[in-house]
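Chapter review: from sequence to fold.
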Amino acid sequence: MSQAEDAVGRISLWRGTRATISPLSGGLTNENYLVEAGGERYVMRIPGASTELLSIDRVNEVHNARAAASTGIGPAVLEHLPELDVMVLEFIPGPTMSAQTLQSDGMVRRMAESFKRLHAAPRFLKDFDMFRLIEEYLRIVAAHQVRIPSDYRERLPLLADIEQAVRVGSLPSVSCHNDLLCENFIDDQHCLRIVDYELSGNNDPCFDLGNTAQEANLDDALRAVLCEAYFGRLDRQQLARMNLFALMSDVGWTLWGAIQARISTLDFDFTDYYTTRWNRALGVMASDRFEGWLREARREGP
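The token string follows.
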């Protein structure tokens, strides 16, 4: 708490008033705190240790958070201390979502509306590409002797096949979140707000749709609803691309989890996290559904 208390003392928003601070649970990278001052509530975000090894760019994050806030879908950035990389954000009242609360037709359609608003945000500062991020993570893994699944590199040729397939029907890049855990949705009773932009960047919108489908454990029927609600029709090629990007979320975040297991000071079992994600990815890559997605994604024309 000493670092948080030091940061609280530097914030001009509540200077001259008594501020109370309490930790917020749920973050896997940073430390988040609820600050109450002058009758108002705020969220203060302090970056985790060595997060540059996760390829997180804090200048990019602040720029993108402000762009997302301009649409009303992201929380307002109320103050930023660049010397500490600390942000003070609007507190959004309402329940934090979970995989269980998002698994319904109605909630999936609300998610699609939130995506449309986010993807219409002013262009983000940098681009995001999971295939290139995996290459960067593998360099970090090698440089810092990070333990990863023993068969991970054996699957790299298959990732090249996936990249080739998803490029066929690629869409113009838009402002994407790229790491939408269910807990990054907050229901303010008007819409599902979206928080936490540290891995955000311009990307194919199908990555956001697929990543969220994976995080929320959406079944095939709900993935089809998400696709139809976002695109206005059930586009089979884009649905296949969503599913391939969902798989790539597990493949990429496996390395993220392995690096976190090496560097993080948070009380969280990152080894179980990345092992679970990798085993799920292996199961998908060995399935008939996977081959079907590749064929559908490669299909050109109506």
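Two observations follow directly from the output. The chain has two domains: 2-90, 99-298. The CA atoms of residues 284 and 290 lie 6 Å apart.
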